[in-house]
Write a structure and sequence with these properties.
The complex is a heterodimer of chains A (about 350) and B (about 350). Chain A is mainly alpha-helical and about 350 residues long. Chain A has one domain: ABC transporter involved in vitamin B12 uptake, BtuC. In chain A, the strands form two sheets. In chain A, strands 1-4 form a two-stranded antiparallel ribbon. The longest helix of chain A has 28 residues. Chain B is mainly alpha-helical. Chain B has one domain: ABC transporter involved in vitamin B12 uptake, BtuC (Orthogonal Bundle), CATH 1.10.3470. Chain B has a two-stranded antiparallel sheet with strand order 1-4. Chain B has a two-stranded antiparallel sheet with strand order 2-3. In chain B, strand 2 and strand 3 form a beta hairpin. In chain B, helix 1 crosses helix 2, helix 2 runs parallel beside helix 7 and helix 10 crosses helix 11. In chain B, about 50% of the residues are buried. The chains are: A mainly alpha (about 350), B mainly alpha (about 350). Chain B: It is found in: Cell membrane. Chain B: This is ABC transporter permease. Chain B: It is a multi-pass membrane protein. Chain B: Belongs to the binding-protein-dependent transport system permease family. LivHM subfamily.
Chain lengths: ~350, ~350
């Protein structure tokens, strides 16, 4: 049953299994284990980014194509929910409608971009997605009458998902709509993750891996490479949009900075590479480490900066604002020295 | 003795449509300029817009030329190219700010000296940085596009962060040297002096680059390397060294472009390289990967179209580049003048 749920793709490493279980338990019981607004915020972010990063891994790790438009699809989903809730009022109907429309739009756009660029050579794809994503970000910030521009949109979601909705108390924790909202995010993310796991372990996923390993051979065997690549792009875009919708439901706010910026694209890249390309579990590890680092490493660096304040130059490198630089260095090193990421290392350690 | 075979070879000239097809990319810029003239209507604003479009195009070309050559020569796609643009701008502008006594003086000689010093500093620093970048970041990942993209993006992040560390996260405003301020009036149109200068520098660089590529031995090796690298290596040329040279030159050109762009915008930010890199990519794609001429035409098209549209229909100008790219790729999926065969 459990193996079937994971589509036969077991973690294959004791350490990895333990880590994944710890993450799962912590996320599942987050409202009870770590009460407090900030930790719940972190847990929800981790859930959403796991899906987002896993959907990106479908492209990067499994199909071997680099896209810089993943935040664009993420943003489409988020803006879908935001616009639907803004125009149709609060309710579950608009949420569902916005989510569906966002995912559809993302899929269609992905097919268009894919047909344009993947037809010629995969490397075009990276550059064209970068250009298209930046154009979309500019459009969103310029057409402020529709999208709220740089300020973004605030909207209301059903009352059952807001802190104002109180249910009672379990184990000393006040259950309110925010916690219900968290569990909505948690279960949707879990389902999407299992779906992605299903996709990459299906015959379709195997073809994608074959294309990654040897494009010509895959074509020669009779698989239409362009078709498969476009389909992968489309699927990954749709899942990213769904993650975006979850994010919008959680935050009750969308803006270009939180959903469309190039910085988030870089974050996703870092998460995939650090966690491990070509394995869905890498997304879990990468997203968890990264979001935790994002929220807590900066504090740590602040402490380190004060501790070294008397030394020359070093404090500049330890400035909390410089944390992205350290992640960049880590990113380069991990591409060189362990391209399979943390998960690949853990699995290799078991075999070796 | 048998009779000669029964066919007579003919040398038919290319038909008009064939020739048009070949020349089409070169005709695009003049056609666009003429179309712009009719769409805009008034000569004076058309002239102003054309000059600023050309100036913008020239600056983009300066930044793009290195990238396209590096790709053509070694099949290396450098997503860190934008970092050189930012670094060039920051170094050059810092020199200009340090020499504010010279730039503020209404003396042409001092102004030009200050700008030249700034340009040389930028070129030296970005060239050296390019050399280091090639050694540390690019060299270990030859032949693997995926890793190249990832690693060079990582390099971009680190360099951008270093810029913020050295110069701070705030944008830096500057004013152009005294003699480059203001505009000259020509046929009723006000044309900024600096834009004219940018057009002139861009043209000089383009001609010089073509001369080097077409008339010198090193240019011959570079062109041959783009067309068929293995053959050139088999003939005994160490293409790697040529490549390093091209990489350094490309980085230095990006730095020069950065300084010029900084002076054009009169403000620089750490993220400017990233923004410019998107334009550079568009130009390189529509020009055809590996082609300097293609990049030149592409850059001019992007610059002109953006300026015309910004005047005619400001909202449309936001997506003019993407629309242009989509149109060109529908017409020629490899770009206008592809040099490197699709691999």
């Amino acid at each position: 049953m459990l193996v079937k749920l994971l589509s036969g793709d077991k973690p294959n490493s004791v350490v990895l299994t333990i880590i994944l279980l710890i993450i799962l338990v912590c996320l599942a019981l987050a409202p009870f284990l770590f009460p407090g607004v900030r930790s719940l915020e972190t847990a929800a972010r981790i859930c959403i980014f796991i899906v987002l990063v896993a959907s990106y891994d479908l492209l990067l790790g499994y199909t071997g194509i680099v896209s810089f438009a993943h935040t664009m699809f993420f943003g489409l989903g988020a803006y879908g929910v935001a616009l639907a809730s803004d125009h149709l009022g609060r309710g579950f109907g608009p949420l569902l409608l916005g989510t569906t429309l966002g995912a559809l739009a993302a899929g269609v756009l992905a097919v268009l971009i894919g047909l344009f660029s993947l037809r010629v050579r995969a490397i075009f794809f990276a550059m064209i997605t970068l250009a298209v994503a930046s154009a979309v970000a500019v459009l969103v910030s310029q057409f402020s009458t529709i999208t709220g521009g740089e300020d973004g949109l605030n909207y209301s979601i059903p009352r059952a998902l807001t802190p104002a909705f109180r249910l009672g108390e379990i184990a000393g924790v006040k259950i309110n709509g925010k916690i219900l909202n968290y569990y909505l995010i948690f279960f949707c993310s879990g389902a999407l993750f299992l779906l992605l796991l299903r996709i990459v372990n299906s015959p379709f996923g195997r073809v994608l891996e074959a294309i990654r390993e040897n494009e010509f051979r895959a074509e020669a065997i009779g698989y239409k490479v362009v078709w498969y690549r476009t389909a992968a792009t489309c699927l990954s875009a749709a899942v990213a949009a769904l993650a975006g919708s979850l994010f919008a439901i959680w935050l009750r706010y969308v803006g270009p900075d939180t959903t469309l910026s190039f910085e988030i694209m870089l974050d996703i890249l870092l998460m995939v590479v650090i966690g491990g390309m070509g394995t869905m579990y890498g997304a879990v590890i990468g997203a968890t480490i990264f979001v935790l680092a994002q929220n807590y490493l900066q504090n740590l660096m602040g402490v380190a900066e004060e501790a070294t304040a008397n030394l020359p130059l070093l404090p500049h490198f330890l400035d909390p604002d410089r944390w992205l630089m350290w992640l960049g260095v880590l990113f380069i090193l991990s591409v060189y020295f362990f391209p399979t990421g943390i998960v690949g290392r853990l699995r290799a350690g078991r075999q070796g | 003795m048998s009779a000669a075979p029964d066919h007579t070879p003919t040398f038919a000239a290319l038909s008009l449509s064939d020739r048009l097809e070949k020349a089409a990319p070169f005709l695009l810029v003049p056609v666009l300029v003429v179309l712009g003239f009719f769409a805009i209507g008034t000569t004076s604003s058309w002239l102003t817009l054309t000059v600023s479009g050309l100036a913008m195009g020239m600056m983009i070309f300066i930044m793009a030329s290195g990238l396209t050559l590096v790709f053509g020569l070694m099949d290396v796609i450098n997503f860190g190219h934008g970092a050189f643009i930012s670094v060039g701008a920051y170094v050059g502008i810092s020199v200009l700010l340090a020499l504010s006594g010279w730039t503020g003086a209404p003396s042409l000689v001092l102004n030009i000296l200050a700008v030249l010093l700034a340009v040389f500093a930028a070129i030296a620093v970005t060239g050296a940085l390019g050399w280091g970048f090639e050694r540390v970041i690019v060299r270990p990942v030859y032949g693997a596009h995926l890793k190249q993209i990832l690693v060079t993006v990582g390099g971009l992040i680190v360099i951008e962060q270093l810029i913020q560390m050295v110069w701070g996260p705030e944008e830096i405003f500057l004013t152009r040297p005294e003699m480059l301020k203001g505009a000259v009036t020509f046929a009723g149109a006000a044309v900024e002096k600096y834009r004219l200068l940018a057009v002139v520098i861009g043209l000089i660089l383009f001609v010089a680059m073509r001369m080097v590529l077409l008339r010198t031995k090193i240019g011959l090796i570079v062109r041959a390397g783009v067309a068929n690298g293995e053959m050139v290596e088999a003939l005994g040329y160490r293409l790697r060294i040529v490549f390093i040279g091209v990489f350094i030159a490309g980085s230095a050109l990006a730095g020069l472009g950065g300084v010029m762009w900084g002076l054009y915008q009169e403000v620089i930010t750490a993220g400017m390289g990233e923004e410019m890199m998107i334009l550079v990519f568009i130009v390189v794609i529509i020009g055809g990967l590996g082609s300097v001429e293609g990049a030149f035409i592409g850059a001019l098209l992007v610059g002109l179209l953006q300026n015309y549209l910004a005047f005619l229909e400001p909202k449309l100008a936001l997506i003019s580049n993407i629309a242009l790219m989509a149109a060109i790729l529908m017409w020629r999926p490899q770009g206008m003048l592809p040099v490197v065969k699709a691999k």
